[in-house]
Amino acid sequence: MTDTMVVELALQAMTISAKLAAPVLLTALGVGFVISLFQSVTQIQEATLSFVPKAIAIGVALLLTGNWMLREMLTFTTQLYEKIPQLLA
């Protein structure tokens, strides 16, 4: 296993991690921004107000993108297992 292979494998792992985390993080960011804007406009400073909408939105995002996330992870894992002979040589 060469240094190039290790760096390539680490880069692929970080890329797939970012791709899988993006839908949930962007959903939480968007909903948090909208709730924060609503709170600043109405001057309602309730800390728990943002929790329930974020939880619901993240649940919906996971329902909508879960199948894609599973396929991406399955593809990455399959490719990783196929590379094992090359990595050990």
From TrEMBL:
Keywords: Bacterial flagellum, Cell membrane, Cell projection, Cilium, Flagellum, Membrane, Transmembrane, Transmembrane helix
Topology within the bilayer: Multi-pass membrane protein
Main location: membrane
Superkingdom in the source lineage: Bacteria
Membrane spanning stretches: 20-39, 51-70
Cell compartment(s), UniProt: Cell membrane; Bacterial flagellum basal body
GO biological process: bacterial-type flagellum assembly; protein secretion
GO CC list: bacterial-type flagellum basal body; plasma membrane
One Pfam family of this chain: Bac_export_3
Purpose of the protein: Role in flagellar biosynthesis.
Family from the record: Belongs to the FliQ/MopD/SpaQ family.
PANTHER family, per database record: FLAGELLAR BIOSYNTHETIC PROTEIN FLIQ
Protein name as annotated: Flagellar biosynthetic protein FliQ
Organism for this UniProt entry: Actinoplanes missouriensis (strain ATCC 14538 / DSM 43046 / CBS 188.64 / JCM 3121 / NBRC 102363 / NCIMB 12654 / NRRL B-3342 / UNCC 431)
